[in-house]
């Protein structure tokens, strides 16, 4: 290529890059404009008492953007990915708009264990929404009557094993109309203890997320209203207003399901991590040659062992029912060992197909969701 031709090509490339920069700046300005409108939507929803999260509206929006992408010759998956990120950011903005004022202005909140990991989050959410909020810690029981005076909601953000004792100790200081609720990952025993201790409204709550969660946007909270549910409805409305997805259950159903969702899942992860450590596996080397899905799975194992062992021991071993479930799991693992025999291959394949049939359509959903997570992990690392 002659020098003049190269100069012309470089000049053309510079021009094209300038065009891309102009478009990128315009995209940022459009996002800023969209955020301003979202703020007005949040104010409207707050006045009308509407929830932040509107699943049908969001899915309709995504579907229309996918159709628009196809018409424009763009990858609809790319456009969906972009807009889901934009929509989530919008929900976070709207949730912040709900924090002042709360859905029950002037209600007083007491958080027992409010300086703990989850308690700190609860205090922050209610305080930011304008609720007068008090914290009661284990070394402050001499001031319990003072701190509980006039409380409309008492949240027990304490370990599972301490819930019954704390409920009994706190209840005499609470107004009869105060809602007493806990955040434990078990519900039958804590709810029973609160009902025995407190004559007023009782509400079991189980946030299905950890204390590192900054926003309640689309986070699941299981609610088990136990006594005078109409008097605790405002608490659930407040959680919904912050963007949480409130799922109602009975304490019995909750504990049965959590045996699988939490105890069994954590125990299987614990066994895997324990095996890796006792086998002396070189984690760094495995990560160097790992597939994305191995890295994702190992990340969940490492996440478990980076947290409080007492908390997870309580979750896994909390009840006789859970311990029986975990023994059944180990029995199943022992039974599966027969597939390791020389003639076990065909039986393993048959069992694989049987389990795949049991999972049914969820298998396709699992492929889509896990593929999305894997792609995100690849982008990040």
Describe the protein's topology.
Blueprint: H1 3-48, H2 55-71, H3 76-97, E1 109-112, H4 117-128, E2 133-136, H5 144-148, E3 153-156, H6 163-170, E4 179-182, H7 188-197, E5 202-207, E6 220-227, H8 229-241, E7 245-248, H9 251-279, H10 283-288, H11 292-305, H12 309-317, H13 320-336, H14 345-359, H15 362-380
Parallel strand pairs: 1-2, 1-3, 3-4, 4-5, 6-7
Antiparallel strand pairs: 5-6
Helix pairs in contact: 1-3, 2-3, 6-7, 9-11, 9-12, 9-13
Q: Which characteristics define this entry?
A:
381 residues, alpha/beta, Chorismate Mutase Domain, subunit A, Rossmann fold, 6-phosphogluconate dehydrogenase C-terminal fold, 3 domains, 7-stranded mixed sheet, 15 helices, globular
In short:
The chain is of the alpha/beta class and 381 residues long. It has helices at 3-48, 55-71, 76-97, 117-128, 144-148, 163-170, 188-197, 229-241, 251-279, 283-288, 292-305, 309-317, 320-336, 345-359, 362-380, and strands spanning 109-112, 133-136, 153-156, 179-182, 202-207, 220-227, 245-248.
What does this structure look like?
With 381 residues, the protein is of the alpha/beta class. It contains 15 helices and 7 strands. It has helices spanning 3-48, 55-71, 76-97, 117-128, 144-148, 163-170, 188-197, 229-241, 251-279, 283-288, 292-305, 309-317, 320-336, 345-359, 362-380, and strands at residues 109-112, 133-136, 153-156, 179-182, 202-207, 220-227, 245-248. The chain has a 7-stranded mixed beta sheet, with helices on both faces. Helix 6 (163-170) runs parallel beside helix 7 (188-197), helix 9 (251-279) packs across helix 12 (309-317) and helix 9 (251-279) crosses helix 13. The longest helix is centred in the N-terminal third of the chain and has 46 residues, at 3-48.
């Amino acid at each position: 290529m002659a020098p003049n031709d190269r100069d012309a090509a470089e000049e053309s490339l510079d021009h094209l890059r300038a065009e891309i920069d102009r478009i990128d700046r315009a995209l940022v300005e459009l996002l800023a404009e969209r955020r301003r409108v979202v703020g007005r939507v949040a104010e409207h929803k707050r006045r009308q008492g509407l929830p932040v999260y509107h699943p049908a509206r969001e899915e309709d929006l995504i579907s229309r953007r996918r159709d628009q992408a196809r018409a424009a010759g763009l990858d609809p998956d790319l456009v969906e990915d972009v807009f889901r990120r934009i929509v989530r950011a919008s929900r976070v903005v709207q949730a912040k708009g709900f924090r002042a004022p709360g859905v029950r202005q002037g209600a007083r909140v007491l958080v027992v264990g409010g300086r703990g990991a989850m308690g700190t989050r609860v205090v922050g959410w209610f305080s930011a929404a304008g609720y007068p909020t008090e914290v009661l810690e284990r070394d402050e029981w001499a001031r319990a009557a003072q701190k509980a005076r006039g409380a409309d909601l008492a949240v027990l953000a304490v370990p599972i094993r301490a819930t019954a004792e704390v409920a009994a100790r706190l209840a005499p200081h609470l107004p009869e109309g105060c809602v007493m609720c806990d955040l434990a990952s078990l519900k039958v025993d804590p709810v029973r203890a609160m009902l025995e201790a407190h004559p007023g409204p009782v509400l079991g709550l189980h946030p299905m997320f950890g204390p590192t969660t900054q926003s309640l946007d689309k986070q699941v909270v299981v609610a088990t209203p136990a006594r005078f549910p109409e008097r605790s409805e405002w608490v659930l409305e407040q959680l919904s207003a912050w963007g949480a997805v409130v799922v109602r259950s009975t304490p019995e159903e909750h504990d049965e399901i959590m045996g699988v969702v939490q105890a069994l899942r954590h125990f299987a992860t614990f066994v895997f991590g324990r095996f890796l450590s006792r086998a002396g596996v070189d984690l760094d080397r495995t990560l160097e040659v790992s597939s994305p899905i191995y890295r994702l799975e190992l990340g969940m194992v490492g996440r478990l062992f980076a947290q409080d062992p007492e908390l997870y021991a309580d979750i896994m071993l909390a009840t006789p029912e859970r311990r029986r479930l975990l023994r059944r799991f180990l029995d199943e693992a022992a039974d599966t060992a027969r597939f390791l025999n020389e003639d076990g291959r065909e039986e393993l394949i048959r069992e694989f197909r049987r389990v795949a049939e049991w999972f049914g359509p969820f298998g396709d959903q699992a492929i889509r969701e896990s593929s999305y997570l894997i792609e995100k992990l690849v982008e990040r690392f």
